[in-house]
Amino acid sequence: MTLEESFHLIPNTEEDRKEMLNAIGVDSFEELLSNVPPEFLDVDFESIGKGLSEYEVLKLLGDLANGNVHTGEAISFLGGGAYDHFVPTVIGEITSRSEYLTAYTPYQPEVSQGTLQAIFEYQSMICALTGMDVANASMYDGASALAEAGLLAVNLKKRNKLVIASTVNPDHRAVVKTYLQGGDVELVTVPQVDGTTDLKALSDLVDSDTAGLLIQTPNFFGCIEAADEMAAIAHDNDALFIVSADPISLGILKKPGEYGADIVVGEGQSLGSPTQFGGPYLGIFAAKMELVRRMPGRIAGQTWDVDGKRGFVLTLQTREQHIRRERATSNICTNQGLVMLSATIYMALMGKEGISTVAELSTRKSHYLADEINKLPGFEVMFSAPFFKEFVVNTPVAPSKIIESFLDEKVFAGIDLSPYEYGLENCMLICVTEKRTKEEMDRFIGLLSEVS
């Protein structure tokens, strides 16, 4: 059965199908799918087999799930945007209460004072963490938050060029590229030197046509960028300076608002949510006050009623369903309400000192492990730049072999960097959070020594 034949299984008449295709502006169903890579279109529907009963499906899915190894039973040195930080038990106890257990923002928001207060508290804490003036109710994830920030810069500056550091998470860069493909926007990538952005190349690439400069610090390799100098380069060309930051790192590093960031985004998973394959995750988005009406998503505010009682309202909703389309800043449909609530509880529980402690422990432990790995024959820490909790190691054998063999020991060794465009063929990205004990790290070193 072809895809065209499968299209005809949908209960529409031939006239209905023609009308839909004409409205879209294509002549056939195949043309509609022309942007899909061919290997994904060659589907043998007959090989899928007969349908299964509910019990059979549940058993099949259970067997597949039981084949997984997760961080509850394995030692994880994985990073690259999803981090195995400790999640206090009380978070699940609170978020599982019926009045909180929703991932969606109500359409009659003022009735839901609890949800609005949670958003308001979240926004306030994100502003305190990032050093920015205003934060929204959250985005889908860190990647979409970065892409939305890029669109904001393009629309504000009326320019068609964005400059992005190659040290930004490659998956996030791919999302930015996808967001921009429908518009006439040039995305220029800045090369890296020794794990950080090449400042000379950056200075040459950012010019009067640039709407925004997008960076990540600590970056994909874990290295800390020269953000002050990068901010100056952006602002000298009247471009927005957009920073993607690990929120835990802000417990010990300078706040982006203190070194000139116009917009701060980030992945909020590390704030009280476990690592999960694909999410749901949490997109942080904070900015200077002058950008508040250009921000995507929702912003909750605090007010008082006629009796002087404190209350909460949705102050701004700039999506196209709520205001005139030509004035909308985004078509983002919801905030990650439940994940946002988890982050709010986490930040309230940990406080300023708690987050700083988590950041410091992660830094100290990652540097211990990096120093010990560097002593092993055949292994070498790649970059000399200061790093937070992730670092890149050159390995004597293919990282894929190490990663696969360590699964038998229930150890997630790291991320193989060879599939990315950096040219780091025998390199692995390793991450250490506050959860890793000295015994776990020494065991990891012992396993690596057998490889060397």
Describe the structure.
This protein is α/β, with parallel strands linked by helices. The chain has three domains: 47 residues, no CATH class; 112 residues, Aspartate Aminotransferase, domain 1; 258 residues, 3-Layer(aba) Sandwich (Aspartate Aminotransferase, domain 2), CATH 3.40.640. 36% of the residues lie in helices and 16% in strands. It has 13 helices and 17 strands. Strands 2-10-9-8-7-3-4 form a seven-stranded mixed sheet, with helices on both faces. The protein has a four-stranded antiparallel sheet with strand order 13-14-17-16, covered by helices on one side. Strands 1-15 form a two-stranded parallel ribbon. Helix 10 links the parallel strand 7 and strand 8. The longest helix has 38 residues. The protein is globular and about 70 Å long. The model has no long low-confidence stretch (mean pLDDT 92).
Say what the CATH topology of the largest domain is. Aspartate Aminotransferase, domain 2
Low-confidence stretches: none
Tally of DSSP helical segments: 13
Termini separation comes to 51 Å
Strand proportion, as a percent range, falls in 15-25%
> How many structural domains?
3
Helix and strand run: HHHHEHHEHEHEEEHEHEEEEEHEEHEEEH
Could you tell me the radius of gyration in angstroms? 24 Å
CATH architecture of the largest domain: 3-Layer(aba) Sandwich
Let me know the CATH homologous superfamily of the largest domain: Type I PLP-dependent aspartate aminotransferase-like (Major domain)
Helix content: 25-40%
Summarize model confidence as the mean pLDDT.
Answer: 92
Structural class: alpha/beta
Count of distinct strands: 17
**Shape, per Cα inertia axes:** globular
For the biggest sheet, the summary is: 7 strands, mixed
